[in-house]
Amino acid sequence: MTSETIKNAARIWDYFCSFNSCALSDAIVVCCSYDLRICDYACSLLKDGVAGKLVLSGNSGNWTRHLWDKPEAHVFNERAVALGVDPAQIVFEDRATNIGENIRYTRYLLPAARTVTFVTKPNTILRVRLTVPIQWSGVGFYTACPQFSFPEEVSNVIGLLGIISEMVGDVERILKYPELGYQTPHELPPEVVQSWEYLIRKGFTHHLLPDNRPDAGSGK
Known about the structure:
- It is a single chain.
- By secondary structure, this protein is of the alpha/beta class.
- It folds into two domains: 3-14 and 154-208, no CATH class; 19-144, Rossmann fold.
- It has helices at residues 3-17, 37-47, 72-82, 99-109, 125-135, 159-180, 190-201; strands at 27-31, 54-57, 90-93, 115-119, 140-144.
- Strands 3-2-1-4-5 form a five-stranded parallel beta sheet, sandwiched between helices.
- Helix 1 packs across helix 7.
- The protein is globular, with a radius of gyration of 17 Å.
- The two termini are 24 Å apart.
- The relative contact order is 0.17.
């Protein structure tokens, strides 16, 4: 992989990470995924007293339906308990298959919550931030993620190629989802859009929306 590809991917990664925030909340809500380190980080926030309740939200997605034979929330629960979290502090939400559902289904579990800290992967932190006002209007919220360095600390589950493709898909959704009513509008810096376009030209298209993938309609 060329240094130019790494530079452009790092620009997007760093921009996403700039939306990291955390404060005292009624609950910590984890958008589960393939990366168990997100669970580790959420558990550390719980132990630090950020909140007294941990919501683990997730069924399965593009990666985890092939990785585990149980919902993401159940895998994360096993990890949290192994790290010493009291099971009485944990709430399950094991239906969600995307960010909008993570937020919407959790909302029903926490009707009295006024402030929530959402914990997710670095590359989806901005998408969570833009989705909360649509799915949980009026709640105060923060969006938090571990401070992983790029590219050294990307998940070894999907690897560097996988995370770059995923980020390319994340940027597209930030651009396209507001017109579909899924997210609030957000103006990306021109240099981030330019890096996204560069990575598309380099073939990182596997997580683009189906209609925009080169293999759309081919049965692949």
